[in-house]
Here is the input.
Amino acid sequence: MNALILAGILIVLNFFAYQIFYALDLTQNKDFSISKTTKDTLKNLDDIVNIKAYFSASLPSQYINLPQEVSDILSGYQTYSGGKVKYEFIDPKDNQDLQSELQIKGIPQLQFNVLAKDKYEVVNGYLGLAIQYGDKTEVIPVVQDTSNLEYLLTSKIKKLTTKDAPVIAFLSSNGSLSTETDIKEAYKSVSALYDVRQIDLSTDKEIPAEVKTLIIAGPKQAFKKEELQAIDKFVMRGGSLLLLLDGVTVGNSLQASVNKTGLDPLLAAYGLRLNQNLVLDSSAGIASFNQGFMTFNINYPFWPKVIKEDFDQNSTAVAKLESVVLPWASSIDVLQDKLPEGVTVIHLAKSTKEAWTQSEPFNLNPQQEMPKNKASQYDLAVSVAGKLKSTFGSDTTDNSRVILVGDSDFLRDSLASGNDNLIFFQNLVDSLSLDEGLINIRAKGIASRPLNELSDSSKASIRYLNVFGLTVLSLVFGLWRYYSRRRSRLADEF
Here is the structure.
C-alpha cells in the first residue's frame, strides 16, 4: 500500500515538474538561459510561429548531442511564448520531394564522414531550421552548435514578425569594400535581420528616406562635394552613420600610403578627426607572412589588439567583447571645440597605454626592430550623438548619430571571423539601427577569452614550478615520512 502511495506521489511530482520549465544556469554570460529580449519578443507574438528542425537521424559522433541541445532551446521558446511557438523534428532522409523543397528554401544537404565497419563512409544529412510565420519563412541553413542559436532564432523571429524591417545601406561607390568579394560575411550577418540595400553616390543624388543606417566601409576614392552634401543631409535628418575608414592604405608588398577620402571636413563638423598615421601596440594580433617558401606567424604591432579593459564598459555595443584586432588602424582625435553642447561622446575602443604611432614614411616590415615613439593610448573607435553641426549649414536634428572606426580591414572575410571582429561590427550596426537587446544575446557567444598577460618573471616562475615543483614536493614528502618513521621507532625503543 505504501509503495502505491509513493508511486502516486512520484507520478504527480513528475507531472508538475514537466509542466514547469526552469533551468539553473551558472555560466558567466548565462549561455544556457533564454534572455529577457527573447522572452519579451515571444510574449508579444500575435500569431503562431512554426519551427521545423530538419535533422537527420544518422549523424556523426560530434553531432550526437546536438538534436537534444536544439530541442532544449526550442522547448524554452515554446514555453515562454505561451505555446505560440511550435516545433517539430523531421528527418528528410527518404523524402525526395522534401529534399527538393529544402534545396529551394536554402537548407543544403550536407556530406559527413562516418566510421562504419572499420572504414570511413560518406553519408548525406541535414542540420537546418525553417522558421515560418504566416506566409513568410526564414531559414538557418546549418546548425553546427548552439552557441549563437538563440541570437539567430530571435533575430529571424523579429524579422518575420516586424512589419517593416529597418533598412540599412552599404555604400558601393568611392572604392568602398565590396559586399560581394571583400565583406561577404558581414553583409550576410546583417541581412539576417535588416532590409539591406546598396547606395551608389555617383548615381544616387540623395540617400532614400527609408534608410536608417548608412555604412561606409573602406573608401579609397575621394568624395565629391555633392556626395558629401548627400551624406551630411542624411545625418542631419537623423540618420545613423557608421564609418569604417582607413587613414592609411596598405597594398601589396606592404606598401603603405596616406588615404585621401575628402571626408575630413565632414568629420571635423561632427567633432572628429581621423589621423593619417598607423597605431602600433604591444597588444597585437597574430599576422602571417611569407618569406620565400616559408610562412611565419608573429605578433604584429601594426595590428593593434583591443582587449576587454580598453572597451567602454558602459556601452552595450562593446562592453562584453573580449578582443578585437584592427589591422593597420589609424588613431582618432575628438575635437572638443567643434562639438556643440550636449553632444554625447563615447570612446568605444582604445589601444593599450603601451601604444605608439608611425607617420609617413611608413615601414611595415614585420622583421624589423620596431622603433617606439613615446607610449600613449589612442582612440580607435568613437561614437558621437546628439545635435551635430552641419558642414553645409543644413537643418539639424537632436538625434543624429555617427560612429567612426579608424580601420576597415578588420571586416574583411579573411579577418572578420577571428576574435570578436564580426560581433563588433554587428553590435555597432544594432546600436545604430535597432534596440540593443540583441547585442546582449549575441555577446553570450563571444569568440575569444584570452588569458591575462603575465610578466616575464611570472612566466618563468610558473615554468620552473611545472618542471621542478612536483619533484621537490615528492622529495620533501619523502624526507618528512622518513624522519616521522625514524622518530616513531626511536620512541618505541625507549
In short: The first helix runs from residue 2 to 19. The mean pLDDT is 85.
